[in-house]
Write the structure tokens for this entry.
Amino acid sequence: MDRNTNPAAQKLLRVFMQFNKVEWHQRSIAGCTLSEIRVLFCIRKSTKSDTSEMKVSEISKLLHVTSPTITQLLKGLEANGLVTRHIDPTDRRAVGIALTEKGEMVTQQAADAFSASFEGLVEYLGEEQSYQLAELLSKVFRYFKENAASADHSPWNGDEVA
């Protein structure tokens, strides 16, 4: 980062970079990676509200990743007995994905772990600062979302110094 940059901007960048070093979001739960947990949550949420199965393409769209990426994750989840695949009898190219009982348990275990982690953060920060942090992070999200929508104003143009 340029030495002439605002000190507050420099501090924000350092703090955001520290999150990667801590790897707080990289922990595995029940032997599953964060990516696998996201797929399990996606299946669980969609199958509770709509149908009992999802298609690979639906998961791909919801998580904003390619179908081949989802297919690879599903292979591991299926090998571990967390999901099942069912070929659609009317369209043999289509495959329905559903959570197994074990998959439901692991998804609930992950939900409990995430909840406990954030409850611990609230205890650490206190209620007032937790609400302040949530509001600030919402603003941060809106800021980056608005900037991403406008490529002309993108803060990440490839000229950054590591």
Remarks:
- The chain has one domain: 19-151.
- The first strand starts at residue 54 and ends at 55.
- The chain has a mean pLDDT of 85.
- The chain is about 60% helix and 5% strand.
